[in-house]
Structures are given as structure tokens and as C-alpha cells.
Write a structure and sequence with these properties.
2 copies of one chain form a homodimer.
Chain A: H1 19-34, H2 41-48, H3 62-85, H4 92-109, H5 111-118, H6 128-149, H7 160-178, H8 192-207
Helix pairs in contact in A: 1-2, 1-3, 1-5, 3-4, 3-5, 3-6, 4-6, 4-7, 4-8, 6-7, 7-8
Chain A binds a DNA duplex (33 and 33 nucleotides) through residues 13-17, 19, 40-43, 50-54, 56-58, 61-62.
Chain lengths: 219, 219
DNA sequence: TGTACATCAGTGAACGCGCGTTCACTGATGTAC
DNA sequence: TGTACATCAGTGAACGCGCGTTCACTGATGTAC
């Protein structure tokens, strides 16, 4: 909030010093208050305390700023997922459970990033950096699925890519429908985390991961 | 396109005759071309061929029109799901598979309705009619889960509500991430339908629905 | 069947507003020598 | 160390535009009698 500013919020000099960062922060704040469509270039500039022409030194247009926000969001997301997975410690299944919670946790804790990443309507072909960052995040999930799959007997291993896409879809659906912090959330009689954990358990059961071996739960 | 209009697209009289419908159609067209945030009241009026003040006779504001679109979307959605389910004929599992395809099919065939329903950021508390319509659509899915669950032995029946929420989340996640007709779609090496069908099979397996009985697939 | 009248569903002009974008400009910073 | 200069990162005024919204109005429709 105070790059290159004095104690009263005034800028110290003619140059902002960190306008790029300030614009990203402004965009996040505006997105979280008014939705992914609810911020404008001019308003972001105002928030950052610069003239409406200043952002053009850093971004071609609004979408380009949005893409930068989405990029950073995916980077943070990938880091959060990787940290939760923690290379599968202490056990792959415990780590996998944490991974799912991290997905939901990110959606709840960073709704503005989440919006920019998934709901801003950015054309991924126009912003390959966003696509790359998204791929990196997905790679964490896929890697963890590969580890999990490798704990099964070789003749009963499902494709890790498919499994990763299933879990991603499940977590994403739950996050989108029930895990938001805003008014669009739908009410259900359990937490998103509980819902995801139950679904994942059933799904893994179906793949042949069971307590002590393959087969349906008998409890 | 031609309510109350002659062959040249001119209105027949002073009154439009069906402005409400025309505004909804205009909103859908604008949403499908420019995203859920990409339509304005004025533009919808222009599309419908009336003055910018005319929509105020029918809708309080833009959100109120959007809510009407979302409502109709959920009604069509519920009808599409009910039709696919067809009361579980010929078998609950075949009907359930059709239900999942119908979810994805709706997202692909009606991206504008889908956007208005799930991505418009409407506050559901402010528009209870939308919430009710959404609940009706979900009720179809829940009802089908209840039928499916009832085919299991009584001591091994999962909660139908939980199952319905899981399948909804899964289908919704797949539709959101991979099943869109627009540029925000992510590329995967299979169709959304294949992905959903595979996930559902695994999930049902995990719940104890198996080919010829409970237990993991052995093939 | 006419007629008077209330109501409905539009018009079109007007307004203030904020946005996106451009332009010539200027203060600040970095660097070659 | 000083100086000249290029470059960077801002300013602020200006523009055209489309939006949301209002207003008094008017043409069309429905209905009581």
C-alpha cells in the first residue's frame, strides 16, 4: 500500500516507483469488491494515485493487466498446491488430501485471484504466459496423481492424466459452486472441504485405493 | 427475431408487442458474443429496436433482466435434465449417464444461458426466483441419485444429497473448465463427455455400484 | 355498436458521468566520458 | 567528480463516446356503459 510513499500516503517524488505492483493490487481489490468485470483501467489508476494515462506505460490495455493478475494468481496457486503436496509426505494419501484442501483454501482466501484466473474470460491463446502458468499449477496436481498411481499394482494403474483431470474438475466445481466467499455461493449442509474429501475418498475407492487394499469400504 | 414485425424488420405498430422476449433474446445474443459482463441495457434495447427508455417498462435495471435470463436458463436446464433422465428408463444407470451428458450438452449448446446462470455474479438472495429455478434443476439430479441409491442394499446406501452434490460438482467443473464453446476453454486429449463418463464410473464403483455387484472392477 | 376514458407501452430529447485513449509535455534517473 | 545527454515514467488537459436514467409526451389498447 505504501511503495515509495511517505507517512501520509503522498508519493515521495514524481515517479511512482512501483506502479506495476500498485496496479495489480488495485485490480485485485476492485475485482474482489465488484467482480471480474468490475474494474476499469481508469479506476485502477485512481487507486494507485496516478493519472489515467500512467497505466499505459506498463500495460497495453485492461485485458493485459488482467492477464498479469491471472498469471501471478496461477503462480501463487501452483506454489500453494506444491506446498500442500510437500512431495507426498508423510504419505501420498495424506498429502493428496491436503492438496484438495489447498485448492479450496485458495479459492476462498484469494477470490480475486481466482476470478482473474478462471472467470475473467481471458483468451488464453492471446496470453500464452497465463496458459503456461496455469499448466504449471496443473502439473503439481498431475505429479501428485502419478505418485499415487504408482502405489498401485502395475496392472491396475489408471492413467494419471485422467485422474488429475477428474480431481481438478471436482475441486474446481466445488470451489465454483460452494466455495466462494461472495454472494454467488450456494448453500449446502456441509463445508466444501468435507464435500471434496468425501468425493475424493469415494473416487479413490473406485480406482482401487482402499483401506488396506483394493475393494469397497465395508465399514 | 420477428415478433410483431413485417418482412422488412420494421415494427408493425407503435407497440412492440413482445419487448420482454425480445430483450431476453438480445441479452442472450450479447452474452454469447461478449461474455456475461458484455451487455448493457442500452444495447439490448437497440437490438430489440426500441428506444433506450423502453426496457424500463419491463425491468428495473440490467441485473433484473439478467436474473430473468438466468431464471429461464435454469428452467430449460431442469427440463433438459429431466428429459435426459426420463424417469430412469430403461435402467437407472443408463439414464444417469444420459443425465451427465445433458449437463455438458447444455453448457455447450447454450453458453449464454450457462453464463447467465453461473457466471453472471447475480446475488441469489436478491433474486429468489433464480434460486428457486436453480433448486428445481438440482432436484432432478437429486431425484435421480435417490433412485440409483435405492438399488443398493439398504445397509450400504450413501446419502443421495451428498452423491448429487458430488456429481453436480464434477459435471460443473468439467463443463466450466473444458466444456465451453468459447476461447476460455482448456484443451484436453479427450471429450468432456468421455471425461465425465469415466469419472462417474469410477465414482459409482467407489460407492459400491459395480458390474454385477459391489467391488472394484477386475478387468 | 359507439363513445369516453383509463391504462399501458412506447418515444425521443436531454442530462451528467466516467471511460478509454491521445498528446505534447516534464521531472527524475541513469550513464558515457 | 562533473557535465551533457538519452531515456524513462510520469502529468494533465482534452476528445469523443456510450451508458444509465429521467421526463413530459403520445400512440395503442382495453373496457364500462
Amino acid at each position: 500500500m505504501s511503495w515509495n510513499r511517505d507517512d501520509h500516503g503522498r508519493r515521495r517524488g514524481y515517479h511512482h516507483g512501483n506502479l506495476r505492483e500498485a496496479l495489480i493490487h488495485a485490480a485485485l481489490e476492485l475485482i474482489s469488491h465488484k467482480g471480474p468485470a468490475g474494474f476499469t483501467f481508469a479506476e485502477a489508476a485512481r487507486h494507485a494515485g496516478v493519472s489515467p494515462a500512467a497505466p499505459y506505460r506498463h500495460y497495453r490495455d485492461r485485458d493485459s493487466l488482467m492477464a498479469d493478475v491471472a498469471c501471478r494468481g496461477f503462480e501463487r496457486f501452483a506454489a500453494a498446491l506444491a506446498s500442500a503436496w510437500d512431495e507426498g509426505r508423510p504419505t501420498p494419501s495424506a498429502a493428496f488430501d491436503r492438496l484438495g484442501r489447498a485448492y479450496l483454501g485458495f479459492a476462498r482466501a484469494e477470490p480475486a485471484y481466482f476470478s482473474a484466473m478462471f472467470e475473467s474470460g481471458l483468451d488464453l491463446k492471446s496470453f500464452p504466459a497465463v496458459q503456461d502458468a496455469a499448466d504449471s499449477a496443473f502439473a503439481v496436481l498431475r505429479g501428485s496423481c502419478e505418485v499415487l498411481v504408482s502405489t498401485l499394482p502395475p496392472d491396475r494403474r489408471p492413467p494419471a492424466l485422467m485422474m488429475a483431470l477428474h480431481i481438478w474438475s471436482l475441486a474446481h466445481g466445488i470451489a465454483s459452486l460452494f466455495g466462494r466467499g461472495d454472494a454467488a455461493r450456494r448453500a449446502i449442509p456441509m463445508t466444501p472441504e468435507e464435500l471434496l474429501e468425501a468425493a475424493t475418498l469415494v473416487y479413490l475407492q473406485g480406482l482401487g485405493f482402499g483401506a488396506g487394499g483394493p475393494g469397497p469400504a465395508q465399514s
